[in-house]
Design brief:
single chain; globular; four-stranded antiparallel beta sheet; mainly beta
Length: 168
Amino acid sequence: AEALDFDSVDIRREDSVGASHVPPVKVEDSILFVRTKGTGVRALKLEGDKYLGQDVSAHSQHLFLGETVTADLLTYTKAIEDWTFAEDPWGILWACRNDGVLLSLTHTGGEFGWARHDCAGARFLRACAIPEGEEDAVYLLVQRTINGALVNCIERMASRVQRGNQDD
């Protein structure tokens, strides 16, 4: 093997969209990242000897573009602030927007689907997935008003494991 020198480096632009401060996440065969300003998500997938970029939020632009006004009269752009990937049992990426909205992303065979999850009075601030037994449990930092005061709570999503019984 030859030594690496300046003439042996092949520089090629793979994608022209920058990434935000939110760490990228590997989902199946793609690396997902939040766009520079937080308004949208892109995927990089290795095809042969190069990466191909895909706009993962193209069919759900209403979840990422424009501004929102919340009850506290602050105006936010619809930007993803934090996210986590819960691989088991269903492979769902959970994302918290900076206006407190919780989104989910599913990925199957190159197709991506977004959903919005509303919970009266809750602002979702952070998300993490922690392996617990046969699933990745999703924990959320949620801001709620309790007895007139803003309180940050750590909440766990209900289990999504299905065992084939009547409770499922």
